[in-house]
Specification:
Length: 622
């Protein structure tokens, strides 16, 4: 059936697998996506939404590099919100509600229209290995398919076990069987593996809900989008709604705690701390009588509704009884109950920064197999694994993003350097250079890099260069152009800002905290310049941020430059840390296990102190 050897085989068709397939194929590799069900490519297994705090920045970065997630999100969005607008631009995070069925359909069509991408539906039960190198996969039918590189993106399917109350059964997702064979083979090769847990809430019939008892949650009045390309902007949106649990609901849920797999010992693996189940919330926050429930439509035309905030693995009768006591859910009809799922993962300290495994050459891991949670985190890893698999087999330099270049760089560096013992989720607080890593400038940061490696297309680069040139030109205009006090003072008075007595440059007054671009556009000179130069909202936003936050941005760039000096101090391969007796015992053990490539990476390992770094620097002659 497979006479030719593929360049890259991707195992799994979720968000990581879809991006890995698109990246490798678009860069020129003959790529085969092998998945257990071709009807669920790009499936949103949990909530029907993309983006959010820090996650929205990741989707923008994927798009800037030439990935598909932003485009697919825009094509299937039913609502858009820019979160954290009341805070500084480093915190602004785009989020979209999506039509679940259209999202998967758009992914399937995008991949089918990608040259070099082939598809095969079956379970991969093992890897083909020769020496210390992966050379293909073996399917459950015993078919051997050879390739130069393999990317594993198995999600929650590796020995997946679903829990609903005291019932448990094998599965990688509701209605789909688990994948077996791969974990056992990798452990035989010397890999460490572990178990993690995640969960999902009930899906219900929207026709059975009383929305008049809930608080509407509309999208933005002027919705934006994710992709920097010319994707559609939402003209109409669907509302979400919000309601709350109550003390009664909590009491009803507690009645089932003795049958909860979380509390009776059936589930011992760790779940995502920042997305806890409802039983975990009422147990950990016993002083709270109420928790928010967000009621999210699953699409434009379906009546199915996602009950965000009510993730649970309690018995189905307990779920139903408790949810009926939530305001607006009095007559609720279930489509399916919530459940928890346990699955195998491999601690990511066993990987290089390219996401290639240290033990087997040309084998890459991406997504939940690395201990992460979230569509966006998975997609970004898939993109990077697909890129690096292509580059490796073509004997080109690896593609690694630094912590000051992208949230994707922070994510991968955290995983490789620190590992994770609970499902890893990205937050803005994890990025020490978040003022540089804003959602508005992902294209300026990453599109040239994407173009250089052959993934981002010329159209994308040209759009980015035009935006950058116009933004820089507009900032320069503010630096050179003076204002008339008579024209500017009424604006300053309107925002309770001190008036001025003499003329000065626009840049200076625009830098004031309460003065916005809307205020600047009231000035004749500014509005004329915008009109003459045909500046769009992206350019206006970029210029405003550059003016108002220039000091913070320059300070972070300076700090990042110091980081790069340590990044340039490389540690020799297979360095023998045991001969450095001045290192602490913990540092020696951690350094031997993780094998950092640079002094900078070594400094970020938990348990390696500044004095340990000094010892290394002295030994390396620095």
């Amino acid at each position: 059936m497979f006479e030719k050897e593929y360049d890259v085989i991707v195992v799994g068709g979720g968000h990581a697998g879809a991006e890995a397939t698109a990246a490798a194929a678009n860069m020129g590799s003959r790529t085969l996506l092998v998945t257990m069900n071709l009807q669920t490519i790009g499936q949103m297994s949990c909530n029907p939404a993309m983006g959010g705090i820090a996650k929205g920045q990741i989707v923008r970065e994927i798009d800037a590099l030439g990935g598909y997630s932003g485009i697919i999100t825009d094509k299937s969005a039913i609502q858009f919100k820019m979160l954290n607008k009341s805070k500084g631009p480093a915190m602004w995070s785009p989020r979209a509600q999506n039509d679940r069925m259209r999202f998967a359909e758009e992914w399937r069509m995008a991949l089918e229209n990608t040259p070099n991408a082939d598809f095969y539906q079956e379970m991969v039960s093992g890897l083909l290995v020769e020496g210390d190198k992966v050379v293909g996969v073996r399917t459950s039918l015993g078919i051997e398919i050879r390739s130069k590189a393999v990317v594993l993106t198995n999600g929650t399917f590796l020995n997946g076990l679903i829990h609903i109350g005291e019932k448990q059964f094998g599965g990688g997702r509701a209605g789909e069987k688990a994948a077996t064979g791969i974990t056992e083979q990798l452990v035989d090769f010397g890999f460490d593996s572990g178990r993690m847990k995640t969960g999902t809430p009930p899906r219900v019939d929207g026709r059975s809900l009383d929305y008049s008892k809930m608080i509407p949650q509309p999208g933005d009045a002027n919705p934006e989008k994710f992709s920097y390309l010319n994707t559609p902007i939402l003209n109409t949106q669907r509302d979400c709604h919000m309601t709350h649990t109550s003390a009664l609901v909590h009491d009803l849920l507690r009645e089932g705690f003795d049958r909860s797999p979380m509390f009776n010992g059936r589930i011992q693996s760790i779940g995502p701390r920042y997305c806890p189940s409802i039983e975990d919330k009422i147990n950990r926050f016993a002083d709270k009588d109420s928790h928010q429930i967000f009621v999210e439509p699953e699409g434009w035309h379906t009546v199915e509704v996602y009950v965000n905030g009510f993730s649970t693995s309690l018995p189905e009768d307990v779920q139903y009884k408790a949810l009926k006591s939530v305001k607006g859910f009095e007559h609720v009809k279930f489509f399916r109950p919530g459940y928890a799922i346990e699955y195998d993962y491999f601690p990511p300290t066993q990987l290089k920064h390219t996401l290639e495994t240290k033990l087997l050459n040309n084998l890459y891991f991406a997504g939940q197999i690395n201990g992460t949670t979230g569509y966006e985190e998975a997609a970004s890893q898939g993109l990077m694994a697909g890129i690096n698999a292509h580059l490796k087999i073509n004997e080109k330099d690896p593609f690694v993003l630094q912590r000051d270049e992208a949230y994707i760089g922070v994510l991968i560096d955290d995983l490789i350097t620190k590992g994770t013992e609970e499902p890893y989720r990205m937050f803005t607080s994890r990025a020490e250079y978040r003022t540089l890593l804003r959602q508005d400038n992902a294209d300026l940061r990453l599109t040239p890099k994407g173009y250089e490696i052959g993934l981002a297309r010329k159209e994308r680069l040209e759009r980015m260069e035009e935006k950058m040139a116009k933004s820089e030109n507009f900032v320069e205009f503010f630096k050179k152009t003076s204002f008339d006090p008579a024209e500017i003072n009424p604006i300053l008075e309107s925002v309770d800002s001190a008036t001025v007595r003499q003329s000065d440059k626009l840049f200076k007054v625009f830098s004031r905290p309460k003065v916005t671009m809307d205020h600047m556009l009231q000035l004749e000179s500014v509005s004329e310049f915008v009109s003459e130069q045909n500046l769009d909202s992206e350019v206006l936003e970029q210029a405003e941020i550059q003016v108002k936050y220039s000091g913070y941005i320059e300070k972070e760039k300076s700090n990042a430059d110091k980081l790069h000096r340590l990044e340039n101090v490389r540690i020799p391969d297979n360095f023998d840390y045991s001969k450095l007796k001045s290192l602490s015992y913990e540092a020696r053990e951690k350094l031997k296990t993780i094998q950092p490539v640079t002094i900078s990476q070594a400094s970020r390992i938990s348990g390696v102190s500044p004095s340990d770094i000094s010892v290394l620097l002295v030994y390396l002659g620095r």
